[in-house]
Amino acid sequence: MVSVSDVETVETEDEYVHVRFRDPDRYDEIRTPDWADEPARSVSDGSQVRTGRVEGGDDWEVTSVLIDEHAGEEKAMEQAREIVEKIES
Questions:
Q1: pTM (predicted TM-score)
Q2: Which among 9, 46, 64, 79 has most CB atoms closer than 10 A?
Q3: Does residue 4 sit within a domain?
Q4: CA dihedral sign, ordered 50, 34, 48, 43
Q5: Alpha carbon distance 43, 37 (integer Å)
Q6: Three-state DSSP class for 11?
Q7: pLDDT (average), residues 55-61
Q8: What's the structural domain count of the chain?
Q9: Do residues 53 and 60 touch, judged by C-beta distance below 8 A?
Q10: Which of 31, 43, 85 is CA-nearest to residue 68?
């Protein structure tokens, strides 16, 4: 499990601040699951969680969190950490 402080990158792109926790290249498949909507939106309305299936396995992990760009990068990092903490605890 990743520590919620382990943010790899933060980039503002399109309408979102992308807060990446894990390298997407280590996954066979990446999805934006519906089940993650509730914990994500309870922290930041309109946010999305992307999960990846570990290559060669059945486990899914949070790879990144997308936060509305209006939050700004600092606040987006805080909110993304809180979302990951809710999901992975």
A1: 0.89
A2: 64
A3: no
A4: negative
A5: 10
A6: strand
A7: 87
A8: 1
A9: yes
A10: 43
